[in-house]
Amino acid sequence: DAGITQSPRHKVTETGTPVTLRCHQTENHRYMYWYRQDPGHGLRLIHYSYGVKDTDKGEVSDGYSVSRSKTEDFLLTLESATSSQTSVYFCAISGEGRGQPQHFGDGTRLSIL
Amino acid sequence: RKEVEQDPGPFNVPEGATVAFNCTYSNSASQSFFWYRQDCRKEPKLLMSVYSSGNEDGRFTAQLNRASQYISLLIRDSKLSDSATYLCVVSHMNSGYSTLTFGKGTMLLVSP
Predict the structure, then answer these.
(1) Of B112, B108, B111, whose CA–CA distance to B40 is shortest?
(2) Which of A18, A28, B72, B111 to pair with A63, CA 20 to 30 A apart?
(3) If you measure CA to CA, which chain A residue comes closest to B94?
(4) Strands, E, within B1-112: which ranges?
């Protein structure tokens, strides 16, 4: 399995609180991604990173921010969590080059009450 | 039109059966194609890449038809452990990295 660790694995918090999810990789891959998965929507890209301090928005980036200060860590922050952000969050990594698949972490189940 | 479309299923098949899933994609610039498998409450895992000439990995065969923008996955001799959701995934390159678009998945249930 690809060396990807997500933390926490589960979190329950209240509306309006800040939440940070961490993705840590040991593969030294340049590209990292954050997705959310919801019933009826499949996997949707939130943000991605193509290098240290290089990030960009995905399909559903509103309400989320990211940071990548080291190659191995990619953080996803919900500045003020809302119930609509209750979801399963997956981090993924990929190598460089054409046709590289992405490999996923175990996921974080986040509930916003 | 949805970017990647799959029949959600479920496909209910007995052990030993052959089952096929289809997927269509709308972006003709898509360059790479994959099938992922996702077990309930788990992360998606790469099952196989799909090559233009078609490719096989054990009991699994993938086909790509670029002209029709159509991808298929054939599973022979189904096992109970094949029960999962199968995600069709297409990618295109964007400034050197791959952007993946996921289908919503096809659920397979294999029964004894």
Answers:
(1) B108
(2) A28
(3) A98
(4) 4-6, 11-14, 19-25, 32-38, 44-50, 55-57, 60-65, 70-75, 84-94, 97-102, 106-111
Q: How many other CB atoms are found less than 10 A from the CB of residue B98?
A: 25
Chain B residues at the A interface, defined by Cβ less than 8 Å, are: 31-32, 34, 42-46, 49, 87, 89, 91, 93, 95-100, 102-105
Q: Identify the closest residue of chain A to B49 by CA–CA distance.
A: A101
C-alpha angle A22/A26/A31, rounded to 5°?
A: 70
SS3 B81: helix
Work out the burial of residue A2: count CB atoms within 10 Å of its CB; fewer than 13 is exposed, 13-18 middle, 19 or more buried: middle
Q: pLDDT tens digits, residue range B71-101?
A: 999 999 999 999 999 999 998 776 666 688 9
Classify strands A108-112 and A10-13 as parallel, antiparallel or unpaired: parallel
Q: What are the contacts of A57-62 at 24+ separation with CB within 8 A?
A: A58/A33, A58/A34, A60/A36
Half-sphere exposure of B67 (CA within 13 A, CB side): 1
Q: Distance between CA B95 and CA B2 in Å, rounded?
A: 24
Nearest-neighbour CA in chain A from B41: distance (Å): 9
CB pairs under 8 A between A and B: 53
Q: Model confidence over B36-78: pLDDT tens digits?
A: 999 998 999 999 999 888 899 999 999 999 999 999 999 999 9
Residue range A7-28, pLDDT digits in tens: 999 999 999 999 999 999 999 9
